[in-house]
Amino acid sequence: MCKFTITSGVVVLDKHNRILLKLDPTRGWELPGGIVEENENVQNAAVREVKEETGVDIYIIRFCGVSQELSRNVCNMWWLGKPVTKELQTSIESLEVGFYSVEEALRMIKNNDFKKELLMCLENENNPFFITF
Prior knowledge:
CATH class: Alpha Beta
Distance between the termini: 21 Å
Number of strands: 8
Strand content: 35-45%
Largest sheet: 5 strands, mixed
Order of helices and strands: EEEEHEEEHHE
Shape: globular
CATH superfamily: Nucleoside Triphosphate Pyrophosphohydrolase
Oligomer: single chain
Structural class: alpha/beta
Radius of gyration: 14 Å
CATH topology: Nucleoside Triphosphate Pyrophosphohydrolase
CATH architecture: Alpha-Beta Complex
C-alpha cells in the first residue's frame, strides 16, 4: 500500500505585503510549514507549524492549492495567512526568521519548487492550484 505524507505550508503576508520566511538548517530559506500530525486538521497544522517555526501567530485567509512531490510521496497543502502577532522567534527548525519583500524572498529561496509554490499562492487568488513535481 502506498502511503503519502501530508504537509501544510503557509504564505504569511504582513500589512506591507512582505512574506514570512524561515532559514531551515538543511533546505535554506523557505516558507513555514510541516507535516500534518495524526488526527490533526490540515488548516490547524498550518497554524501550528508557523507558530512552532517562527513564533508568529496567524490566521488563515484562504486555501491556495496543492503541490505533489511524486518522488517523495508528499502532498503539500498551501494556505495564505496573516499575522496576528509579529514577535519573531527561531527554533531548531529555523536558524533565522523574518518578513521580506516578494523580490527578496525569490532571491533568498534557492529551491525552484519552493519559488513556484510561493508564486502560485500569490497569483491564484480565485482558483486553487494543483501542481506536480
